[in-house]
Amino acid sequence: MIDGNIKDASELAPSILDAGFNMYVTQDLNAAKEYCIQRYAGSETKRYGLMASSKAYCLSKYGMKLVFQPDVAAWFNKKASEAGSCCELKITISEFDCQGLKIDMPIVGWGNDMLWDGGGWKKFKLDQSVDSEANTYRINSYRVLLTRGRDGFITFVPPTDEFQSVYDALVGAGVEVL
């Protein structure tokens, strides 16, 4: 999917879902939060939290403001009921903060730094080639974010016309609507 091949992704999705790895997309951030809270209710060991690309500035108006230099140790390790825990669903971390680390269910905010044009991902840096370093970093940032979950992921796509093609591409790739 991240490579832009929606058809191949849609063919692989059923086996991924059958293996117990959940892939969801929603345009309602509160629904994503509520799903995680309900799914992991009563478990102090399960972790879920907000993640977004470091360039996804547009998500702050939806309640996913990236925190510069968050306390990553607290975010990943504090009990679900403790302040600073990822399970508070207050602190959004970036691909740089979570690289190499996992939680059970990340809620990944999709920013306007990687939009779908109907046939592929639009370039982040329009004045550069698709394989430029800046454009490759954008694709890789979403690859990192979408692979942080042990049980799966939820992708929050803002409910605007600008993002509708992203939402449609994710659904077309076999990501289930939450």
UniProtKB/TrEMBL annotation:
Domain Schlafen group 3-like DNA/RNA helicase intervals: 14-158
InterPro entries: SLFN_3-like_DNA/RNA_helicase
Xref: Pfam families: SLFN-g3_helicase
Domain of life from the UniProt record: Bacteria
Protein name, as recorded: DUF2075 domain-containing protein
Provenance organism: Clostridium cochlearium
